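Teaching note: in complex prediction, the entire set of molecules is handled at once rather than each chain in isolation. The prompt given to students was simply: 'Predict the structure of this complex.' The entities are:
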Amino acid sequence: MKTVRSLVITGFGINCEEEMGAACTLAGAQADIVHLNQILHERVSIHEYDLLNFPGGFSFGDDLGSAKVLGNKIKFRQTESGKKLLNELERFLSDGKYIIGVCNGFQALVKMGLLPNIGGRFEQEVTLTYNDSGRFEDRWVKLRVNKNSPTPFLKGLQTFDVPVRHGEGKLLFADEEVRRKVIEKNLNCLSYADSDGNPTAEYPFNPNGSELNCAGLTDPGGQVFGLMPHPEAYLSLYNHPDWARRKRQNPGISEEGEGLKIFRNIVEYIGEKYVE
Amino acid sequence: MRTQNIHHIQLVLKDRVFDVAGVRVREDARKYLHIETGGVKSAKIFALLDDLTPQQVHDFANLSLKDKILHDVFINELYTNPAYASYILISKLPGVTDDEGVSAQKAWCDLFNVPFDYSRQWIFAQEMYYIKNDLSAGDLQAIAEELLGNPLIHHFEYGRFEGTITYLPTVHIEAEISNKTVDIFVDDDALLRLSKDMLLALDLNEMQAIQKYYRDEKVRTQRREAGLPELPTEMEIEVLAQTWSEHCKHKEFNALITYKDLDTGEEKQIDSLFKTYIQASTRLVQKRLEEKGNNWLLKVFSDNAGVVRIDKERVFIWKVETHNSPSALDPYGGALTGIVGVNRDPLGTGVGGGKLLFNTDVLCFGPPQYEGELLPGQLHPRRIMSGVVKGIEDGGNKSGIPTVNGAIIFDDRYRGKPLVFCGTGAVMPSRYNGKPSWEKRIDPGDRIVMAGGRVGKDGIHGATFSSLEIDEHSPRSAVQIGSPITQKNLSDFMEKAVRAGLIKASTDNGAGGLSSSIGELATIPNGAVVLLDKVPLKYAGLQPWEIFVSESQERMTFVVEEDKMEALFALAADFEVELSDIGWFTDSGFLDVRYSGQKMGYLHLDFLHDGVPKKKMQAEWRRPRLSEPILPKAIDYNDMLRRLMGSLNICSRETVVRRYDHEVKGKSIVKPLMGAQGAAPQDAAVMRLGFDSYAGLAIANGIMPRYGDIDAYQMSAGSFDEAVRSIVAVGGRLPDPENEENIFWSVNDNFCVPDSLYHPQTNPDGKYKLAQLVRMNEALYDMAVFFNIPMTSGKDSMKNDFIREGVKISVPPTILYSMVAKMPDVRRAVTADFKQAGDLIYLVGQTYDELGASEFYHLLGELGANVPRVRKEDALRIYRKMNAAHEKSLLVSAHDLAEGGLAVALTEALFGDGTLGADININDDSLPPHVWLFSESHSRFVVSIDPQDREVFERLFGEDAVFLGEVRNNGLLTVRCSGKEVIRQKTTELLDVWRSGLEF
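The expected output is the structure of the full assembly:
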């Protein structure tokens, strides 16, 4: 199996690059953390990589709306030779490669039109805005995986726990049409769930009031995957707020966090594709 | 006003979108101001001040600003709607940080592919609220000033909206560059007047010392030869005042104190509290450690923060300080600037560029439900609290630094001035290119480079700036708003630059600005030349001395070798960080400050740093005459417990804690709230350091100001003990010079006291207050040398009084000990909550009749006299046993006892899972039930163990542990004292009471 190369984008207030890089490394990929300007200045090419990571953070302070300025930069700012990075991302995807965005990274993907991209034209179809509570909140939630969703990132997962840490995670669809198509194509790959694992609109299980209780989206091809919660913050059992009780009740419990599975899935999937 | 075009772009939320901000204003106006708005609609405005084409403005509005799902866009013709009778427009005042405006400028540059221009702000963000009801000007003003903004930093317009707005916070200053001389050869009265008029805050002795310097023949000759006037320049006087300020020189902590104990008649002289207690204790501990080969204490009391060794590859840097006065004026800006400010301390220690690992915050407020009068300029405690919490939230979250531990203390005496303690820990490689990272090396010829934000009038003379001197286009200087995002870019850049070997040393620009940062660095090579005309400004019109002392935020000063300059500047361009080459270091012995080739200041470094005369102060101690209260005959323990759980100083901090990102970086192992429902409060925080091993740290704070009402010594000792036992609870080991374990402990002590300088009229009890301060220091010394725990850094804040109209509100003398200890394996950490039915519960430590200043007495409206005493020998024995129990993995849970004593600790330990209960039997009637349950004796824990470990555990602890009972799965807490049931409460009901105590 070829080594999967993973690029983690950073800079301008992105701040989860280290754990995102660690997630990729622990999953077996070779990860590089690179400032966005290195790409815009064409010192690093995204095409050298198989997996592109947009980590969480507060890019540009979330001024003008979460990830808005970052998304605009990727859409409009020309690279050294006059290309636009958004077009490079389109090429990256047409080469059959994969993109993941978490929290601020997910917000950027949504605002650039990479998710859910039902129309295939990279235009914004949904948005992420202020939580109904009006507050930033850090709390752990349970997610339910849509078993029919087309993305390899979530293979084999049914429910899992992860922390949310955002003030703008409420997902809104542009209109009924987009909402309908998202449901039809199973692009709403993750839902906030109650303690029994059933999708719920009830606060705080659904921490922000998202439509469809949606916590994450994929594009129709399953290549682009984004979510508000932070799987990269659950790489180890010891990240979970209840780890000590779980360990007391089950001393032999695995020390690996459930969030790592997502990264293992994609690294394995890409690796196997190369074998084929 | 210049005749440039102004364009307004307005974003209004579509009707289908839930208007969170509007709803918040409606609800808060109703709840706190009793004003019915009828409904509020929020909108954002960007004012663009430049010659732009309509097409450009249209494209920018629609492509860069608008979210098509959320917004309708209005350009130049603003949204009006007859359904809304009133409006409020909020703009920043000139010169106030406007990150949104700057980000909009960056978005503009990205859209049109032009480079960003740092030199000019031309997009300004404004907020607008449309209000349904036709409110009076008074109501609108109240909503504007009490809910939405602060007149110190905002401009408000309100009334009926006519469709246009005119205000723009542009800065215009007419000023000619000057450097006047100051006539200091005058009599004493005139000297004092000079100090007052120039806002120098220097006393007569200090003014005379300056006078003497300029009269010195040698100085006169040197000045003549250097081409400077005989009299001091304005620049020099300002630099001296900055450098000699209490803030920078800690004159009271270095004063000569005469201390009288009026109870015993003893009298002693203390030559510097700092040297006698803080420094001496740490030096002694260091000597003991190093004699036994423990060499982890690398840097103390010098540089921006203390440094200890984690292992061969890494060092740990840790600094905690306060930001009280700014937080009283503008709570949000004060706290935000406090947290991003303290971030720069570890960032600028040694070579610099440490990776910021965590923040802590400890906050002291007046009660949020306060209903009394407010003095002019005094903000309501609820408002201070919500502003400070928001500031800590943005400061930490937007910088990507987890806020992992803290405390909130409520006391009526903090309603004049809140205390805001901000701390940051960082990890740095122990070597950069083979050289120790924590050392600052500077040679003559090295360049001085300023990095980060630009310089404005921010923070010049702070809060004393007279309102008469401010017109509507004067930049605000008293209050600053930090920009976490500017600093995040700067710290990302520094991390790369130091690792590439491009920076030789660095320091932060905080209090005193460049004058202080360069003034201090210059002592290493013994001289510096500064070219102030090379410093980039936010706006024109600053005097050279203002540039030098400005406290504009998000700036660092780097020491750079000539041949590294080009590479450093290239790297900075990549990170979009602005750098300026503003001078070089020398060995001339002088701080030589120039502007456009002319010497503006020329001060001997020895005089600048060592010339300040010693203060003399008087302290008198008399033990307060207090007695124990007579308690009601029948105590309803169920009721007492419920009231305690819901009381302000005990109830859950969840409403605050959830707003802080406490797990960004993915390294948080023990977080503020744990357990199945994320409800159980913890003692120390535990973090791992990286993803390649489980080595980590435990982090805790100790603070208990109310004990000082009885005895400041026991208050300080108790606070120290609280921090230690919190770390011991999670599994931290005490330092042990006898064993070469290299388990570091790093402590920041922070003193916040009221004015302690005796004055017969204005401060008649100043001698007692100073005696309290002395006793706090004595306890620090005794505890530090007993436990071999060194102070590595600290701070003092000496004038925490709020004075208006003859009323003085003074904080109680307060000390915070913030401690960090190394944890070799965080997987062995033990959390505070019970885990499983059947586990056995013990009380570890000795309980005494010590309810003085307890929460229990407080509920009864009493202070009492028996303040908890720290019994060091007992504490050490118990902690060693706890260490051994951790080593043997005997502990399933361990929670330290603090406010509310045993009853509260037991209850909190149940919150890990609402289905758990505990069956408790106290069969020792040597103490009455209220003492067992509510005494706050120190050095105690509630622990639970696996029943199969019972014998080993009891053998280890002997008389230091009392068996209390068993964890049950019945969701019920029952307590029997000598067979009689005193408490029977459902866990979920206690949890509800505890969780709803702090809504704001």
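Point out the following to students. The first strand of chain A starts at residue 5 and ends at 10. Residues 260-275 of chain A form the longest helix (16 residues).
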